[in-house]
Amino acid sequence: MAVPLVPLVPSTPRGSQLPFLPGYAAQEVKFGTSRKPQTLSFGPGGCIDSYHKLKVPRLNLAITERLKDPFHRYDMSYRSPTHEERDFIKQSARNTFRPLNEPAWLKHDRHVLKFDAYTQDRMFESTKETFRIRCCVIYFYLEDGTMMVSEPKVENSGMAQGTVVKRHRIPKPKCLGGGTYSYEDFRVGSTVSIYAQIYKLVACDEFTRKFYWDAMGAVQPDDQEAPIDSFQANMQVDEEAIAERSATLSESKEYHHLAAGGNRKNQKLEQYLENDRKVLRFHCFWDDMTKYGTRMYYTLHYYLADDTAEILENMSRNSGRDPYPTFWRRSPLRKNPNITATPGMMEPEPVIYKPEDLVVGEYVNVLGRNIFLYDCDVFTRDFYKQYMDFEQGSIKIEQPRLVHTKIRYPPHIGFGSEEDSLASCLRLAPRPPQRDMKRLIADADKVMRFEAKLANNIPQDEKRRFIVAVFMADDSVGVWELKSRNSGHDEGKFANKARRKNPATGSWFCQADFFVGAIVEVNASPFQLIWADDAAFLRMESHPAQFRYADTSLVIQKLRPARELLEKVEGLMDWRSFQSLVQDHGIQLVDHETISLARAHGRYQGPARKAQIDLGKLLLAMDDQT
């Protein structure tokens, strides 16, 4: 209880034996009444404000006296109220405890106006910045007119943040009229002075806008953006690094929090309480495209309580599969599945499927299977329509058309030849593959040899030369490297004689794949054939149907559009110059075609590797062919 002090009186108080001398004067102590009376009481019907001297309704107990008589039900002296009258009395008796003019603490209970604001502070001890923009939130409580200023925490800002001004009635500056701030003093875009600190209001929430429109008929201006200082600009640049650092330190922060005696956080408790036993159900299927695969139907359950999912298989009768219907056990379904080789390894941040990711008509990847969602139940449709304002569709699914899959032979495993491995698949008692004995005897000693170079664009391999041999008896290919001084490579065998496949076509190499100018790949090394021996040229020219680049009649037909150009040139011309001449006219000739023209209508020197085309003979051949 506070004791008020009374100023000194010029005379000695009554009952005091002290003389009226300096230092002997006494103060008269008076005890005042400072208690506040209780105005809130409780009675029938709820709480009552006794300050307004409202009369508490009293029960008429005289009516209960008649209930002692067991025959009161048969008393017809008064009319019993009907059901409508009873409902009217019940409804009219409701909320009678609330006063007609509600006080502010009752009318605006838990009504808070929220404004986003910022203030500017000067930085004296920093060489990187001269000022700092500090974003704050101003709360105005309508029930008692109090205010509070809070600054959200920013990581590594170097400033103490949190509650800047505690909740109380804040006085207005004298230059603004004095008094305390009210809700009429706030407007988006204006400034507010709180204890000599200037705050500019830049935004407000929807409830604040609605309150000003209902209470004052005023419309708050549109939200504005707070300015960005150099510190915030640097934070935006390093946003990814800060996010990674925060994720790395989150586990250590939680560990130290628990070690210091803190409680364990239960962040999903509210989600569990609101969504317990609420499950989304989707119908889906997966098309197995393997040899003996078929369409597999599933039911996907998504539990809203903890964001977990389970997938159950819908097996048909006589499916021949084991009765294990759970395809995915209930657990979080990750978009980025990861398998750790050893315990303790760092794992990427899990990204799990959310309800917004499950849409009818799209795919969900589970264990490498693209599962298609084609329908859902009624509860799932209502959930998406109520919470996400999205209408889930429904796709009519027909059974896939049965397609007979031809049994394929197993691939070659590398032992022996492919024909030998295929023979064990064709018969129970394998037979040796048939061989063309006539061809083996007729072409046993016939070989086409080509000179080649590596076409890998490596400067160290430009001077290396090779011999590519094609054995006509069985189409086997062998490669040998020629001796070259200071090349750093030994001469001799580069690739064994064997049948080889052409990587470009996927089939075995044949004789028609080899000609001057062709690029063939042997042992993962590309070889460009730059010349051939006389035996190879004669073999090709004698079989023009098999080697089309050695057929001079086909080459002459390609040169007919350039006849006028050839008539202007006379005499002999080198085969490369001739090839460049017709190429400028839009006619593409490979090296073997040009050399075949030189051999048939010109001069050819095999050992010297020179070939010249006689244009006069070529024109005569073109006339004879017509």
Structural class: alpha+beta
Largest sheet: 6 strands, antiparallel
Distance between the termini: 133 Å
Calculate the mean pLDDT score and round it: 84
Can you give the helix content as a percent range?
10-25%
Physical arrangement of strands within the biggest beta sheet: 6-5-4-3-8-7
Treating each run of at least 4 consecutive H or I residues as one helix, how many helices?
Answer: 16
Task: Examine the secondary-structure arrangement and name the CATH architecture of the domain at 444-625.
Answer: Roll
Taking pLDDT < 50 over at least 5 consecutive residues as the criterion, the unreliable ranges are 1-13
Radius of gyration: 49 Å
What sort of overall outline do the alpha carbons produce when their principal axes are compared? Answer: elongated
| The CATH C-level class name of the domain at 444-625 | Mainly Beta
Strand content: 15-25%
How many strand units? Answer: 23
- CATH fold field value of the domain at 444-625: PH-domain like
Tell me about this structure.
- This protein is α+β, with helices and mostly antiparallel strands.
- Strands 6-5-4-3-8-7 form a six-stranded antiparallel sheet, with helices on one face. Strands 12-11-10-9-14-13 form a six-stranded antiparallel sheet, covered by helices on one side.
- The protein has helices at residues 62-65, 83-92, 104-107, 206-215, 230-237, 239-259, 269-275, 378-387, 418-426, 437-442, 534-542, 552-559, 563-567, 575-584, 591-600, 615-625; strands at residues 40-43, 46-49, 112-122, 131-141, 146-151, 162-168, 191-194, 197-204, 279-287, 295-303, 308-314, 326-331, 363-366, 369-376, 447-454, 466-471, 476-481, 492-498, 519-522, 525-532, 572-574, 602-605, 610-614.
- Among the domains are: 105-227, PH-domain like (Roll), CATH 2.30.29.170; 271-340 and 349-387, PH-domain like, CATH 2.30.29; 444-625, PH-domain like (Roll).
- The protein is elongated, with a radius of gyration of 49 Å.
- Helix 14 (575-584) crosses helix 15.
- It has 16 helices and 23 strands.
